[in-house]
Design brief:
WH-like_DNA-bd_sf; Tscrpt_reg_LuxR_C; Regulatory LuxR family protein; 12 helices; Endonuclease, Chain A; alpha/beta; seven-stranded mixed sheet; disordered N terminus; 49% helix; DNA binding; Arc Repressor Mutant, subunit A
């Protein structure tokens, strides 16, 4: 990617992620959660400071993953060549000195992938790096995931399992972020950014997922997945979009009584006292 003029690529710590995310250029591919994320972000001033940061990171991620080309005004690169991406990931690991926060989405790693990753992960821990990993809770049903988790935690890593992890992400020292791009179930490279406001927002998002998770010993491998059902996802989306009950019922093709019952159940499950707060907690748990 050609370098933008220095006057444009300067580090900008004053980027308003909510404002930046709202001005997404035309041409991106909409995700199912886009309208919900956009509306939650629009109302971010009503949230706590911590939740504003969480929403800012999620709104920024939505734009990063849907815009056709990275914003040339920010320190963002899109790397599509696999060999270049591998080299950049190796460089990122080598440069990490304090913390590596990794979210795993998609298919669970194979036993071979775990065996290949173990020496590098142990090298990070040996250097005093805090290695923090987040998996979807259904990964805990796999013996290879349980074995790797037990092994790496014994070496000092922290591994959490959360309801869902909808996106892959790596954050290094709160200063560098890598977000793989997956379109139509196919890898399309990754976005790499050192833009301070973006990285800070993405770390808040990743940390929210880590904080909402559970340790392996707290999970019953035989228990069903913590993922929301399709109806729960549909309801949390219309709740987050701020639709009236009448509009929500029409979209979901359910009665008002049924819709309100689903809302009440979601508020209880998410530990929320309002529909807006339920949307925030859904972001924190990886539902949106």
């Amino acid at each position: 990617m050609s370098a933008a003029p220095a006057s444009v690529t300067r580090t900008r710590r004053d980027v308003d992620l909510h404002e930046w995310a709202r001005h997404r250029p035309a041409g991106g591919t909409d995700f199912d959660n886009h309208d919900a994320i956009r509306e939650l972000s629009r109302r971010h001033a009503a949230a706590s400071a911590r939740d504003q940061q969480l929403l800012g990171g999620r709104a920024a991620l939505d734009r990063l993953l849907t815009e056709p080309e990275p914003d040339p005004a920010l320190l963002v690169q899109q790397v599509t060549a696999l060999s270049v991406l591998r080299a950049r990931l190796t460089q990122l690991a080598d440069r990490t000195g304090r913390e590596l926060l990794s979210l795993h989405a998609g298919e669970p790693p194979s036993a071979e992938a775990f065996n290949a990753a173990l020496p590098a992960d142990r090298a990070l821990l040996a250097r005093g790096v805090r290695l923090r990993i987040v998996y979807p809770v259904e990964f805990a049903q796999l013996s290879r995931v349980r074995t790797y988790t037990t092994t790496i935690c014994a070496d000092g890593a922290q591994v959490q399992f959360t309801d869902a992890v909808p996106y892959r992400m790596i954050i290094s020292d709160g200063a560098r972020a890598v977000v793989p791009i997956v379109r139509d179930r196919r890898s399309d490279g990754a976005i790499i950014t050192t833009e301070p406001a973006l990285v800070i927002g993405l770390r808040h998002l990743a940390w929210g997922l880590f904080r909402s998770g559970r340790e392996l010993k707290q999970i019953d491998p035989a228990a069903p997945s913590g993922r929301p059902t399709q109806i729960e996802l549909a309801v949390i989306r219309v709740m987050s979009e701020g639709l009236t009950d009448e509009a929500a019922c029409k979209r979901l093709a359910v009665s008002e009584r049924t819709f309100r019952r689903h809302v009440a159940q979601l508020l209880e499950r998410l530990g929320a006292t309002s529909r807006f707060q339920a949307g925030i907690r859904a972001v924190e748990r990886g539902w949106l």
